[in-house]
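Please predict the structure of the following assembly.
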Amino acid sequence: MARIDAIPEPTRSAVLGLDCPAFPEQPFLSGLPLSQRRVAIVTSAALHPREEPPFPAGTPEVRLLPATLPPAALLMSHISINFDRTGFQRDINTAYPIDRLHDLAAAGVIGGVAETHYAVMGSTDPRTMAATADQIAGQLKQERIDAVLLTPV
Amino acid sequence: MSALAHMIETRGVPTTAIGLVRPNLEATRPPRALFVPFQLGRPLGDPGDAAFQRRVLLHALGLLERSDGPVILEDFPEDAPNEQDTPGWAPPFALPVPAMPPAGGWEAALAAEIVLLRPWWEQAQARFGRTTVGVSALPPEAWPAFAAPFLDGRMPEGTPPRGSAALSLRYLADDLKAFCMEAVQAAGPAASSRQINAWFWSATVAGRMLVALRAVAMASDQKGLQTVARFLVPVPWLPADQR
């Protein structure tokens, strides 16, 4: 459905017109088998704990999502109105697959689930997010996380 | 997200990204990415389909065990099974056909609709275990009195809950949509997102009111309201003469 010709205008032109950054380096890290890795989610759905204020438009900030936070304690304050939210309303895993990740950990497919997950505002220019990447990577290393799953909306 | 994947892996942690817009993945070239052919907003596919979500997740995580990068860009081989309209779907309740503009005024009409929908919204919370309503920081019963003054070119009374009146209106619109769209999913089979949106924008006072608010905000001489106007109604759901 998100094949380009299925996205309605003007959203189609907007997403295709995004100025995607090019990177001079091409990292590619190897690691342990999946069954030994602890996995964190980084979502661009602008999720945050219910008691926190919404994400401001264009902010490069990151919000921390403790793995113990129940789905009912999370809100979405993404600036865009051009993606579906009805699926997220029925099931948080549609955009933030936290229960599925726990399922895989329980089945031994992955080594474990991180204590902390991360949310950013997907419409923010990533060129403003170097400090955010530093912050996320720093905490990932502190919590000895071996793999990151990034999910968009 | 693919750019952030690149930045995190550069800082020393392996990543795998799910992507919904393939040309952007091709341009950014993250270390590992799975393109999924689903609608925007649903990177894991259909709500409530744990088996399907698990397959998407396994495919994305499986890229971490590959050694043939950089760059690995894969296509998920399945479509989301329930993106098409559900035949025969109808809301589990009937609403009065909204007169435009409402005879007794927008505030009263929206208040009456919220009273009608509230039991269904509460039933939806029991069904799905949560609500996504809350970003406005106002309870549903406060929404009509906050939103209606904008239609008369006035500002609502009191301190705006989210910094400015315009920004508060923008979040109220999110809550109003979530309230109604959760209510209509309280019972019965899952409708497609298109069916839910078609119902909301044509059959509810709330949807009609947001279209009217957008028109007023677009014509306002206040920059904040002009900006917010673009974030109230998705263009495909605007009346043809307002697109």
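Helices of chain A lie at 11-16, 86-90, 98-106, 130-142. Chain A touches chain B through 84 residues (CB under 8 Å).
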